[in-house]
Each structure stands twice: as structure tokens, then as C-alpha cells.
Design a protein that fits this description.
Length: 159
């Protein structure tokens, strides 16, 4: 956008000076130097001095472009600047809200961590093989199994 404005301003300056030079040449201003006034050149005629040579058609089209596009360009620039300001304010507002929510979440997490660390949890369960009941039942099962086996062998021998 900025580049377009600069291009338009440069064209405006070039075309403006070319048009001004041409109008001054048509006026009755006499000058001693050939390069200080404009000249009307026909096709194939050599230019009397060095400089910018712009055809009348192109100069008129550029002047019209400057007259129409430049105000529109300024209007769009003003509108886009206002839109950018509004977007920036909205983003800043959203950032403030997000920071507030983040602080609230941090506070809630800190509270949860405090509750978890302050509340005693259940006693850790001991492993099943380290309990006396398990070993007592296992020993009782072994004794009962041996007794039943001996009884079965004795009964089989008595038959």
C-alpha cells in the first residue's frame, strides 16, 4: 500500500512538472535558454535538450489518475489505519482477558496443589505376600493337603 502511494506521488510529481512545463511553453513566457521552457515536438523531431519526454496522452491520463486515485488512496489509507487501530485495541483487550484467566487458573492450580499436599492420603497397601494371614492360610492348606494325601494312601493300602 505504501509503495503504491509512493509510486503515485512520484508519477504525480513527474507528470505535474511535465504538464507545467508544457503549459509554460504555451504561455508567452520567453526564455533565453531552450531547456527552461516546454516544447511541442512532432513525431521524429529531435528534443532540444535532455530531460523527461512524456506524450500528451500519457500526461493527461496520469493527471487524471492522480486526480481520481490519490484521494481514493488517501481515503482507503485513513480507513485502514482506523481498522488497524480497532484491531489492535481488540487484541490488547483479548490479551488482558487471557492474562486474567491465566492468573485465575494459576491460583486454582495452586489451591488444588495445597489441598492435595495438606490432605493425608490412605495408607499404602502392603504387598499380599507380606501379610501373616496369607502365610497362615498357606501353611494350613499345605498341612491339610498332606493329611488328605496320607489318609488316601492309608485307605488305599487297607483295601
Amino acid at each position: 500500500m505504501r509503495r503504491r502511494i509512493i509510486q503515485v506521488l512520484l508519477v504525480a510529481a513527474i507528470v505535474g512538472s511535465a504538464i507545467a512545463a508544457q503549459f509554460c511553453g504555451l504561455c508567452a513566457h520567453a526564455s533565453t535558454s531552450e531547456c527552461t521552457r516546454s516544447h511541442v515536438l512532432g513525431p521524429g523531431a529531435p528534443a532540444p535538450c535532455a530531460g523527461l519526454l512524456v506524450p500528451e496522452e500519457e500526461a493527461a491520463r496520469a493527471a487524471l489518475c492522480i486526480a481520481v486515485d490519490l484521494p481514493d488512496c488517501r481515503r482507503r489509507r485513513k480507513h485502514e489505519a482506523e481498522e488497524a487501530r480497532i484491531r489492535r485495541e481488540a487484541a490488547e483487550s483479548l490479551l488482558r482477558i487471557e492474562n486474567k484467566l491465566r492468573k485465575e487458573c494459576d491460583a486454582a492450580l495452586d489451591e488444588c496443589a495445597r489441598i492435595v499436599t495438606d490432605t493425608p492420603g490412605p495408607e499404602p497397601a502392603s504387598a499380599w505376600w507380606s501379610r501373616a494371614e496369607v502365610w497362615g492360610l498357606t501353611a494350613g492348606g499345605v498341612v491339610l493337603g498332606v493329611g488328605v494325601t496320607l489318609l488316601a494312601v492309608w485307605a488305599a493300602g487297607a483295601l
